[in-house]
Design brief:
Radius of gyration: 20 Å
Distance between the termini: 50 Å
Number of helices: 11
Oligomer: single chain
Helix content: 25-40%
């Protein structure tokens, strides 16, 4: 990339940010701001809760090539995520695999959850950030190179999505981000990701500083971190309290996956949670399909709204 193109890209991003703030009114809930081509959307909230929906999009513009496997460099054991492989590398679907599967009904779940939270809070709305592009075109829960494969149009949508999150964070100062996903693991449980691997959860070898809720642990320094992660004051406990069929990992009844399937959290909670800095905590929620289906979704969203509200208030009481 040339110096001129880098400067143009930086200037374009700066103008994008300026325009967003020109139309941004945090006192007005549920107005929407869109990125270019409406690939991304920010539904403006008025409370210190953020919901992100990275994998619920359906748009498949022909101008963005579909993501495929990355290019594997055997010498350096490194993947290069680009459509044209650099010299000395080749496409490798085993070493450099990418996921393009849509998380069905996660957008509908997010909207239903926001509605229930509004009812509970007397009209407050969470900030909602949505990627409307198909995951085959852009995966905003990955590093930028793997997310967009170097395609400028996809990279711009990636930048817009992340800037929408930053805008919401700048308004709430302290709060909670919920990243909604879907999974098809045979256990059919709810997986709550705090950046701890399943091995760490099963062994107990972790510290609060290595999680995406580090800020909460510092705020409640008199409460053992185990209590916040998988004890009596954990999100898993609060969800299961609503209905025991909503089995969660981690929780008091399932301290870890015990060797089972489990997603620990991806780029969004790593980047926008409180592990490295800041006072916005983040949790990745991986939902089995039966919960996301229309028959169960309304009931579950009532339960999840109550659980999130209770967990969310821990740092404000």
């Amino acid at each position: 990339m040339t110096w001129e193109s880098r400067m143009f890209g930086s200037a374009r991003k700066m103008w994008f940010i300026v325009l967003l703030y020109m139309f941004y009114d945090p006192s007005t809930a549920q107005n929407s701001v869109f990125g270019k081509n409406k690939y991304t959307e920010y539904q403006i909230g008025n409370m210190n809760l953020i919901i992100t929906v990275p994998h619920g999009g359906s748009l498949q513009p022909s101008s963005i090539p579909s993501r495929d496997s990355g290019c594997w460099d055997k010498v350096t054991s490194k993947c290069y995520y680009t459509h044209s492989c650099p010299s000395g590398t080749s496409k490798d679907s085993t070493s450099c695999t990418v996921s393009t599967v849509k998380d069905l009904y996660t957008l509908e779940t997010a909207q239903a959850l926001a509605k229930e939270i509004s009812i509970l809070t007397g009209g407050k709305y969470p900030h909602i950030i949505i990627n409307h592009l198909s995951r085959s075109k852009l995966d905003v829960n990955r590093d930028k190179d793997e997310a967009a494969f170097g395609i400028p149009e996809a990279e711009q949508a990636f930048d817009e999505f992340m800037e929408f999150i930053n805008m919401a964070k700048s308004q709430i100062q302290k709060g909670l981000l919920i990243d909604i996903h879907g999974q098809a693991h045979p256990e059919q449980w709810i997986e709550l990701g705090y950046l701890l691997s399943k091995a760490n959860l099963d062994s107990g070898a972790f510290t609060a500083a290595s999680t995406s809720i580090f800020s909460l642990s510092k705020e409640l320094y008199n409460t053992p971190f185990e209590t916040l992660l998988r004890g009596e004051k954990s999100l898993g406990k609060y969800i299961q309290d609503q209905n025991p069929k909503y089995v969660c990992v981690p929780s008091p009844t399932n301290l870890g996956p015990n060797g089972g399937n489990y997603f620990s959290g991806g780029y969004i909670v790593k980047t926008h949670g409180s592990k490295d800095n800041g006072t916005v905590d983040a949790v990745q929620i991986e939902l089995p399909r039966w919960i996301r289906e229309s028959s169960e979704r309304p009931t579950f969203c009532v339960a999840l709204a109550k659980a999130i509200s209770k967990f969310h208030q821990l740092s404000f009481n």
